[in-house]
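Q: How would the structure tokens look for this protein?
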Amino acid sequence: TAKILSPQKKVLIPDPNAGCSLADSCPADAFRAFRAKYPDHLVVSYVNTSAEIKAMTDITCTSSNALQIIESIPKDRKIIFAPDKNLGNFLNSITGRNMVLWDGACHVHEKFSLEKILALKQQYPGAKLIAHPECQRPVLLAADYVGSTSALLRFAETDSGNEYIVATESGILHQMRKRNPHKTFIPAPPLDSTCGCSECIFMKMHTLQKIYDSLKEEKYEILLDPELIERARRPIEKMLELSS
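A: Here is the predicted structure in token form.
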């Protein structure tokens, strides 16, 4: 996305193997065939997609502005939402729409165990469950608050509570604890009992050393076809226009 918005700039990726499970869940060829089944549908896609998917999209969105983007579209307009089915289901539930959803998901948010979360709430009866909308519907229904990463950070700061079970990528806990040293933040447990946290393995591939090396040597530059950049930029610009 950075390269698409700033094609004249050099954009580096510290580890070229660091992908995204959500983006990978929506291959371009498969989505092209899927979209062809619904020719009268507007395509709204999450920013966590490849440039090829963005080029097939009418409007992109983030978890922060997804509701605003969907509500800006006339109610009688049919929509395909991709790639996150959990975020799509959440948006359908609060808007009353029936968007057609691509069957994709984030490997981190798919892993949370509602059973283990409820057991954890027994240990911390005063704790509020706060969750990202990429979590599965049973977790969202049990949550005291659902919001984007930035919204979860704001809620943790402004809410009167003192204990929170956090159902999103565990890297957010550092910022929550840093901003609210007097509060307790507990990572929501995943299905895999061998790990007490949920980390994005791809995000953690970008180590400080790799960032330093990439900047120092200016290696692993992102290169995209100019025509693809042009097509992929339009839905991003449309999102910025609608959410400004």
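Residues 20-106+225-243 form a domain with the Rossmann fold fold (CATH 3.40.50.10800).

The first strand starts at residue 42 and ends at 46.

Upvote if useful.
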